């Protein structure tokens, strides 16, 4: 898996994920620093997307934290 590091902005990223996938509940998105792979695995089971797609999506959200785009 491509390396993914979430240093800051997790709450904004979480909000964007919840808006994009409205069937996911907030309590299903637990994240602790260093647990990026576990987060991606969890999202993969919840969304059915491939890991590479999820890593790309989260990286894009990190770049545009202040943007409302999903």
Explain the overall architecture.
The protein has one domain. Helix content is 51%, strand content 0%. It has three helices and no strands. The protein has helices at 10-20, 36-47, 51-63. The model has no long low-confidence stretch (mean pLDDT 90). This is General stress protein CsbD.
Mean pLDDT: 90
Number of discrete helical segments: 3
Question: How would you describe the shape?
Answer: globular
Structural domain tally: 1
Features:
globular; mainly alpha; 70 residues; 3 helices; 51% helix
Write a concise synopsis of the structure shown.
The protein is an all-alpha fold. The chain has 3 helices and no strands.
What's the structural blueprint in terms of helices and strands?
Blueprint: H1 10-20, H2 36-47, H3 51-63
């Amino acid at each position: 898996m491509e390396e993914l590091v979430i240093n800051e902005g997790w709450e904004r990223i979480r909000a964007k994920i919840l808006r994009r996938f409205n069937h996911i509940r907030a309590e299903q998105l637990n994240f602790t620093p260093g647990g990026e792979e576990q987060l991606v695995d969890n999202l993969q089971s919840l969304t059915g997307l491939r890991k590479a797609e999820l890593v790309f999506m989260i990286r894009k959200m990190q770049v545009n934290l202040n943007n409302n785009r999903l």
